[in-house]
Amino acid sequence: MAYEPGASRGSKAMNCTRRLSALVVLVFSFENRSELGWAQSQQGAASVSSVAIGPQYDTAHVYVAPSDVNAFVASFLGTFGGKSTIQVVATVTPTPSSTTSQLLQTPVGTVSLFGFKTPIPAPFGAERTGYLITNMDAAIKAARASGAEVMVTPFPDPIGVDAVIRFPGGVMTQIYWHTKAPSYAPFAHVPENRAYVSKDAADTFLRSFVAFSDGSVESDESAALGDEIGKPGTTFRRVRVESTFGKLLVLVTDGHLPYPYGRETTGYEVDDLAATLEKAASLGAKILIPPLNADGRISAMVQFPGGYIAEIHSPVSLETH
Q1: What is the pLDDT of residues 227-237, one digit of tens each?
Q2: What is the β-pairing status of strands 246-253 and 192-198?
Q3: Surface-to-core class of residue 89, CB atoms within 10 Å of its CB (0-12 exposed, 13-18 middle, 19+ buried)
Q4: Phi/psi at 296 (nearest 5 deg)?
Q5: Is 41 inside any structural domain?
């Protein structure tokens, strides 16, 4: 569907005609609201049903030093539960490199973990997530049609084909296709991809992502409390998008962010935040931001061994009962 700022779920009925002509493509936003209505050509469009698979097939990309891999695995899995695939050493880039690689699969989100033994070829390490897709050619067409750039053209890896795309606003995502289709159980709680973008790029980014993902804007809050990004007494724009790829939280800011805000790429929902934080701390994680009650959730910021920073939250209703 085509995105219009301020158009949340309640206004979908008015946009039915737009949905019929919108492309399916991937990522974010643009602030000049008077110029929205970006026309998208049907040529090269791909139905999202032929591209996206489901959030349990998408991963947060985490890069740590080889010496930190085991500590990160123990801390992350000990905090959230789940299991790791067998660690392998492989080349996962189109140019020569070597890294350990494994999936950490938990009930609240999956991590693709890399411990590079060689220097990391650009632009790898700058991408935030990986999306499994059903058809690489269709996904590339969809990405370009939405206004995204193909930063790394398709290349083979040990289990399929990969590419890297960059959406307006600079948000980079790896897309990949597997020669053998995996089968994963749904998450207990779908994690949220957290993207900080500028006011200048916000609407362009949103329009691009909504088109690529065939997603919908669930809420668009123009004056969310700045407490959520470490800036009490101020406000910022917060947009929530949902699609077959999962949840996306877009935080539109002036870029004046106190540490560690903007460093996290994923938010994990748990049933009991206090118990989760206690577990994380006992396993070597640092609580960077203690629990904060805002926007119907209690959230905290945690840094796991190796440096990976994550937001972790529970709905207020679960924490208070």
Answers
A1: 999 999 999 99
A2: parallel
A3: exposed
A4: 70, 15
A5: no
User: Are both 148 and 256 inside the same structural domain?
Assistant: no
Lowest mean pLDDT among 106-115, 132-141, 254-263, 309-318: 309-318
| Domain boundary pick from 178, 204, 231 | 178
Query: Residue for token digits 């997530």?
Result: 129
Q: For residue 142, how many other CB atoms are within 10 A of its CB? A: 30
If one compares 201 and 20, the residue with the highest pLDDT of the two is 201
Determine the pLDDT at residue 50: 56
CA angle 148, 149, 150 (to 5 degrees): 125
Query: Helix or strand or coil: residue 320?
Result: coil
In a domain, 156, yes or no: yes
Q: How many CA atoms lie within 13 A of 297 on its CB side?
A: 18
- The CA-based diameter of the chain, rounded to the nearest angstrom, is 54
* Range of the structural domain that residue 72 is part of: 49-178
Mean pLDDT estimate for the chain: 87
For residue 123, say if its preceding peptide bond is cis, omega within 30 degrees of 0: yes
With 0.90 as the threshold, say if the pTM is over it: no
